[in-house]
Description:
The chain is α/β, with parallel strands linked by helices. 38% of the residues lie in helices and 15% in strands.
Amino acid sequence: MNTPPIPVAAPRLDATDIAAAIRVLESGHLVQGAEVAAFEAEFADLVDGRHCIAVNSGTSALWLTLLALGIGPGQEVIVPSFTFAATAAAVRLTGATPVFADITPDTFCLDPDAVRAAITPRTTAVIPVHLFGHPAALDELTTLAQQHHLALVEDAAQAHGATLAGRTAGTFGTAGCFSFYPTKNMQSIEGGLITTADPALASTLRLLRNQGMEQRYHHRIVGTNARMNDVNAAIARSQLLRLPALTRRRRTNAARLSEHLTGLPGLTLPTTAEGAGHVWHQYTVRIGHGLGDRDTFARNLERAGIGTSVHYPIPLHRSPAYATAVDLPHTDNAARQVLSLPVHSGLTGEQIDDVTRAVTALAQATERAA
Length: 370
């Protein structure tokens, strides 16, 4: 029997997560109760005491934030094209227009100069994505947002605990939006959360997630059902306790990958900007021309027992849902070249060594054949 490949992602619930879920299921108190409130309070400690509003997904976190900010038809929001679709979908769902800007090649995050060039009189917000766990250039983007009176909404779905100059992702912008999908650095099976220092914005968000109600059947505004349930919150609380250890493991794995893969011709390794605290949601390399076609390289790694993934093969500005005539050369290059290798916290040191040996052998064989 063939051994399954080392997975690029391995969602896991440990015994404490499962026990937390069972405890809530047996309690009979299941929807947005004490567990959700406790999770919000505990997550606030991670984000400098900001207001925390738990919701049912990272997509809802982005969408409700934009709604709460009053963003809608006739307005524009600058986003990267090199990101998961939810970033742009949240804009489109409000009726506003996503305007795509290019990334910096080294971090894969929004380029502040590209954002500056994309600002128009209709621009109302910018959504930088802390892609793969690396914080965006929040110092420059914060300044830009302030100069042009724009909301800054951090898409921190992949960046739980990431830092820049000692400050945590989710504490720079008007709001920060997190996801707890199973492949994220911490999970709740499904779930999301919004952080903000603005009490009025927090109050509106709490109304929006719960049909516009503070009290049952008293609808202050038009809202929706985007509540987090208590089972998800209990799992998230358990995962949050382990987040520092899980992050240390990802960082150890990333350092080990970089140590053994440095110097391979045609392979560009991920970097960390000065002052940034990367949390390695993904370890994403670039496959250069010397290594042939990226997809062929990935298939050959799969045959060698190494799982990989491409985040993201089609930039949003080139997808049918968002097709836009805009020139984003760094985004297009990244989409052609990127390949994510296993780095998650469930990997053993031996598995990391298996990854580096397979990548090294394939890279060297490809070079010899060229």
